[in-house]
Amino acid sequence: DTTSADGNPIGQKYTDPAGAVPINHLFIHDTSINMRRRRRISIMQSSIRSVLNEAKPTSYAGLRLFGHRFPVDGPDACEDTELILPPGPILTNREDFDLQLNLLSNPVIGGGAPVGLALQESIADLRDFEGQKEIYLYLVDLIKCASPDPIQIIRSACEVSDLHLTLIGFGLRSDLQILE
User: Fold this and answer.
1) CB count, 10 Å around CB of 6?
2) What is the pLDDT of residues 89-104, one digit of tens each?
3) Three-state SS for 144?
4) For residue 67, is it left (φ>0), alpha (ψ between -120 and 50) or beta?
5) Helices (H) and strands (E) in the chain, counts
6) What is the reported pLDDT for 83?
7) Which of 21, 50, 81, 122 has the fewest CB atoms within 10 Å, counting from its CB?
8) Is residue 6 predicted with pLDDT exceeding 70?
9) Sheet containing 24-30: which strands, arranged edge to edge?
10) Is the pLDDT score of 9 beyond 70?
11) Peptide bond into 9 cis (omega under 30)
12) Is 16 exposed, middle or buried (0-12, 13-18, 19+ CB in 10 A)?
């Protein structure tokens, strides 16, 4: 079959009958060791689900993780980011989102926090998409992995005209001065 569940040919973007360009949402899910405390993961996932529930049916959404594959003291902790759901039409990938969020509700490994790398790769993940790009970065620790520099990546994201970055931080008191 060469058509997807939304009736569009596979490999082509969904557009509504009025021809609206979709909004492209990308969620960066923190599964680092510090995010596992005090119900932070369930709060983060409720927020992701709320955005998905309110998104227009023409929207695209994707999910990138960090801190989920390697232990915090391992040599790969600061390279631990992965796009597990490439941006696709919400109408066809919503079940995949729910499945992945359920699997991630209690991650086996809570690793490092390569925030800069995850954000840098998320910007690249959305580079070729048309229309508005929305990145939601959920995080606990801003500067646990210094390379690439998360603050520099945040600054560069703010210079992209069709990109909106939302930072959702948990317990960032020690990082607040850096953000200001």
Assistant:
1) 13
2) 998 988 999 999 888 8
3) coil
4) left
5) 5, 5
6) 96
7) 50
8) no
9) 81-89, 60-66, 24-30, 133-139, 163-169
10) no
11) no
12) exposed
Closest Cα partner for 26 from 1, 44, 51? 51
Do residues 172 and 142 touch, judged by C-beta distance below 8 A? Answer: yes
Token code pair at residue 112: 């490092």
Helices 90-103 and 40-54, axial angle in degrees (round to 10): 170
Task: Provide the 3-class DSSP secondary structure of residue 6.
Answer: coil
What contacts 36, CB < 8 A, 6 or more positions away? 107, 110
Indicate the length of the chain as a whole number: 180
Q: For residue 34, what are the contacts with CB-CB under 8 A and spacing of at least 6?
A: 110, 113, 140, 141, 171
Read off the pLDDT of residues 116-175 as tens digits, 9 standing for 90 and up: 999 999 999 999 998 999 999 988 766 677 788 888 998 999 998 999 999 888 766 555
- 69 residue type, one letter: R
pTM: 0.81
Determine the average pLDDT of the residues in 6-12.
43
Displacement of CA 59 from its chain's centroid (Å) = 15
What six digits make up the tokens of 17?
């009958």
